[in-house]
């Protein structure tokens, strides 16, 4: 599970993950890109919803005063 955070000015995004979780995230991105190739475009939503399909963590990893958790990550993919 990865943690996605933004800084207080929303100018920088931070991704916190173990090496294994980062590889799994890369696999998810690859699968999204393949669906985009087949369909011409594809949209995927990763969430921190409580439940079995939760892909994002809600555990803050950065500085509490400077970072905040991103609970939904939308990835839009399209063919060039």
Description:
This protein has 80 residues and is of the alpha+beta class. 26% of the residues lie in helices and 32% in strands. It has 1 helix and 5 strands. The chain has one helix at 19-39; strands spanning 3-7, 13-16, 41-47, 67-69, 72-78. A 3-stranded antiparallel beta sheet has the order 2-1-4, with no helix packed on it. A two-stranded antiparallel ribbon has the order 3-5. A hairpin with a 5-residue loop joins strand 1 and strand 2. The radius of gyration is 14 Å and the shape is globular. The chain starts with a strand and ends with a strand.
Which key features would you list for this structure?
about 80 residues, alpha+beta, three-stranded antiparallel sheet, 5 strands, about 25% helix
Give a short account of the largest sheet: 3 strands, antiparallel
Shape: globular
Proportion of beta-strand residues:
25-35%
Radius of gyration: 14 Å
Q: Would you count the extended β strands for me? A: 5
Q: Output mean pLDDT.
A: 92
Give the H and E element order. EEHEEE
The largest sheet has its strands arranged as 2-1-4
Structural class: alpha+beta
Catalogue the unreliable spans.
none
- The DSSP helix count reads 1
Helix content: 25-40%
- The span between the termini is 30 Å
